[in-house]
Amino acid sequence: MSEPDAPAYTELIGHLQESALLASCSHLLGWDEQTYLPAQGAEHRAEQMALLAGLVHERTVSPRIGELLSELDRIDLGAETAAAANVREARRSYERATRLPKELVVELSRVTTLSQQAWVEARQAKDFKKFEPWLEKVIALKREEATAVGYGDGVPYDALLDDYEPGMTAEKVQAAFTPLRDDLVSLVQQIAGSSVTPDRSIVTRAYSIDAQRAFGRRAAEAIGFDFSAGRLDEAAHPFCSGIGPGDCRLTTRYDEHFFPQALFGTLHEAGHGLYEQGLNRDAFGTAMGHSASLGIHESQSRMWENFVGRRRAFWEHFLTPFRETFSTALGDVSLDEFYAAINIVEPSFIRVEADEVTYNLHIMLRFELEQLLISGDLSAADVPAAWNQKFEEFFSLSPPDDSVGCMQDVHWSAGLIGYFPTYALGNMYAAQFFNAAQSELGDLHQQFSRGEFAPLKDWLRTNIHQRGHLYQADRLLEVVTSETLSHEPLTDHLTSKFGELYNLG
Amino acid sequence: MSEPDAPAYTELIGHLQESALLASCSHLLGWDEQTYLPAQGAEHRAEQMALLAGLVHERTVSPRIGELLSELDRIDLGAETAAAANVREARRSYERATRLPKELVVELSRVTTLSQQAWVEARQAKDFKKFEPWLEKVIALKREEATAVGYGDGVPYDALLDDYEPGMTAEKVQAAFTPLRDDLVSLVQQIAGSSVTPDRSIVTRAYSIDAQRAFGRRAAEAIGFDFSAGRLDEAAHPFCSGIGPGDCRLTTRYDEHFFPQALFGTLHEAGHGLYEQGLNRDAFGTAMGHSASLGIHESQSRMWENFVGRRRAFWEHFLTPFRETFSTALGDVSLDEFYAAINIVEPSFIRVEADEVTYNLHIMLRFELEQLLISGDLSAADVPAAWNQKFEEFFSLSPPDDSVGCMQDVHWSAGLIGYFPTYALGNMYAAQFFNAAQSELGDLHQQFSRGEFAPLKDWLRTNIHQRGHLYQADRLLEVVTSETLSHEPLTDHLTSKFGELYNLG
Q1: Distances in Å between the alpha carbon of B112 and those of B108, B133, B140, B415?
Q2: Residue A164: partners with Cβ closer than 8 Å, 6 or more residues away
Q3: Best residue of A240, A243, A250, A251 to probe chain B, by most B CBs closer than 10 Å
Q4: Cys-Cys link to A237, which of A313, A410, A433, B456 (CB 3.0-4.6 A)?
């Protein structure tokens, strides 16, 4: 791709790439913190992360960037070109960062590192009180952040949401969630009234963890994750970290008596990993070598987890080797029984173990609570009560303790407020992308049933991954699918799939 | 400990601690590079390491340090006080660093990172030609480093050696090695003429790697390594990395048919780890929170590996559980047979698998070759021939290929020239320290045979670890043992131990 012949552009790109290189060091430290760090090393790690965050922030707000951006204002970079995208995102990031005092950035890094350690301990001890002071500190700092960033005519929450899903607001999210919620509530009610009762015991029998580990790796490899450029490890809260070109790390967690957690979790993280591995390596550090938004990122993970991994076709290919690996658990199970068991729809406590249908309701609950935390209408101390009340309202269930209630996710302890809604946006994007891929690639079901995942992977690489952040999410969606954001493809997918599974009218 | 009431001192310490914090980030990246980094991530890692090295170097040569040191010149910090030691070492490090151009530091970091990757591949392929251009680059850069640092009336090699063992010169090393070499050659000849022939098969039977891993961890724990503040992982070339307070990482490598490699390797690295874990945490980043020299560091690892781990008393305690774990391999083996088998003296190819007696000859060989490389009297291309010729001379053996010859160690690929002699110095220091401990703690043999290692560990902590770099190595030796450096305690230890084992007159 040709680049503008402007020294200011070359200098800007060099600066951005070096900043990204420095930030990638802290990504490795962050990965290590969640996987291999000894307990007593937590405090030192917090100091390391704070130092790096401060150094990255210093570079991000360097007045030289402001000067370069001013110079580039006077140059025509074309419409929807790589250079225009790189400069657009550099400007967005510079403007956001220059509004944040360095002290706040350093304090956020320090507090969220320690807060995550406190969260791990509090969750293990099922003792919210141990986490409460940390949540309070995190929320106070995130409110400071929102005030510093600014939010125009909107609400403070918008300033946080915009960091993960550029251009998105609480109001727009609510507008997309409302019709989806109506559809889901109706679908969940129909399923609850169905006479079909899949055999849940199929997924809760004993599946040796070593064999789960090997099979998860095999599945990730099958869909195209490249282990010569990545890893799969264990972490309390699974994530994918794209550290840099050639180094993308997935994590998962294993439960001997609930194999879907690790297997679909691995496919989920591998979906994120395929996005990272599919980015243009030479563009590392610039918008063109970066994902478009968290919602788009999530569309990739949810597509491989649900639209592929929980599809009948996937198991037409994989059930035979899976049954060979776990013959004691699965000797007597048919494809129909297995497929029904991995797609049971039922209100439950844990978001990351939730089925495709109720999952989005978990997101809506968190979205409502974190808006209240940021507006100041809910205090950290009142989170367990508010969570449990809303949970009862959404799912007609009461969490037995906070470890499976308001402390189940790492996000709040890590300061990731405004992140949750991108999960449900991802589900909507995924449905739209999958329809577009299907219409171009022919019968994906047939391909999956033969173990052929390369056509979909390559299509995603060409249409989404390699485009980096050339477009904002809404424009990317339009370019790839010729549609604007809509909940309907997701509703159609869920209604059709679960209508068949639960024999609904 | 009271600190001088001088703003310059406070500022200097703050600066040093922040630099150490930044350097500790690159230590974590270095550990990861050797343990978990995916192959395709090597290039990005090299860029990360080079960037961090550059940033650390910038801080290390900051003119502000020069100003602070000048101010502190005018303050009486006392004799052998913590403050005096911190300032002395800050000055030594500043003077060394200001002589090195930043470009050289960055290039050394970049080249040695890639060179280590090339070394791994060349070693696996047994193809020195793949490594040769990298070795050539490393040597050229190290010669540049020696020239930049300066070496007074000495030789360029001294400038490199001084980085690992402050105050030591090639001439002094040679003076210590010469009498030791005479003693060892004589001892090896006597052993070769002995009619005692221990059963080597005892150490080469099948020892499952999983069980070796568990036993190695148990042994490291038994001697006092704290796993809540550390880890044990696998690496091609084992090392110990003290990343920071509460985070010290050991590595080892396993061979199903040669258990001593991992077991004594783990005790060796755990010896280093005990030193790191025994340092004063609050003094992190200053001389007082740092080891005294690599030779002193090695004295700790060799003490736990050889003076403890290969001692009869250690196995009076551990043979029973070891035999239970490996009953197929060891069911019929007595303590005497086992003790003899783990102490077989025999010329062999691999330094890290060498016995206590011939080990020092491996060091002397490397010491001679690397002096020639740095003086320019030996080119990288001629290293295999020179190695093999000298090996024949020292051991009457010819390495079958370079992977067990000149490519067996990571050091040269990592730019660690001048490092090897500290291993043999460590053996001499260890013998002297062990005698001192023994005379203060009573019958260590009795204690070990009951599985009591805390008295020795605590004595080392008090006398060596907690003193940090208060003294230079020679002064520390004098304070702790009331002796100066001598090869005699090592000779006495080896002569007595192997005289008994091989029934020598």
Answers
A1: 6, 12, 12, 6
A2: A293, A294, A295, A416, A418, A419, A422
A3: A243
A4: A410
Inter-chain residue contact B37 with A247, CB threshold 8 Å? yes
Q: Which of A38, A44, A244 sits opposite B230 (nearest CB)?
A: A38
Write out chain B residues lying below 8 Å of A284, CB-based. 44
Question: Which one is catalytic: A33, A89, A145, A269?
Answer: A269
Q: What is the pLDDT along chain A (505 residues), one digit of tens a residue?
A: 457 889 999 999 999 999 999 999 999 999 999 999 999 999 999 999 999 998 998 999 999 999 999 999 999 999 999 999 999 999 999 999 999 987 898 899 889 989 999 999 999 999 999 999 999 999 999 999 999 999 999 999 999 999 999 988 899 899 889 999 889 989 998 999 999 999 999 999 999 999 999 999 999 999 999 999 999 999 988 999 999 999 999 999 999 999 999 999 999 999 999 999 999 999 999 999 999 999 999 999 999 999 999 999 999 999 999 999 999 999 889 999 999 999 999 999 999 889 999 999 999 999 999 999 999 999 999 999 999 999 998 888 999 999 999 999 999 999 999 999 999 999 999 999 999 999 999 999 999 999 999 999 999 999 999 999 999 998 999 999 999 999 999 999 999 999 999 999 7
Show residues of chain A in contact with B227, CB under 8 Å. Answer: 38
Asked if B47's CB is within 8 angstroms of A247's CB, the reply is: no
- The residue in chain B having the minimum alpha-carbon distance to the alpha carbon of residue A37 is B247
Rounded CA-CA distance B387/B177 in Å is: 19
Q: Who among B22, B24, B48 is closest to A21 (CB)? A: B48
Which sequence positions of B are flagged as catalytic? Answer: 269
Residues of B at the A interface, defined by Cβ within 8 angstroms: 18, 21-22, 24-26, 28-29, 32, 36-45, 47-48, 51-52, 55, 226-231, 233, 243-248, 284
- Domain borders along chain A are 170-501
For residue A496, the tally of other CB atoms under 10 A from its CB is 11
Q: What is the dihedral of CA A310, A312, A316, A320, to 10 degrees?
A: 50
Give the gap in angstroms from C-alpha B41 to the nearest C-alpha of chain A: 4
Q: Which of B15, B24, B33, B48 has the highest number of chain A CBs within 10 A, making it the mutation to test binding with A?
A: B48
Q: What is the CATH number of domain A170-501?
A: 1.10.1370.30
**Model confidence, pTM:** 0.91
Distance separating alpha carbons of residues A9 and B461, to the nearest angstrom:
56
Under an 8 A CB cutoff, do B32 and A37 touch?
no
ipTM of predicted complex: 0.91
**H/E/C letters for each residue in A205-265?**
CCCCHHHHHHHHHHHHHHCCCCHHHEEEEECCCCCEEEEECCEEEEEECCCCCCHHHHHHH
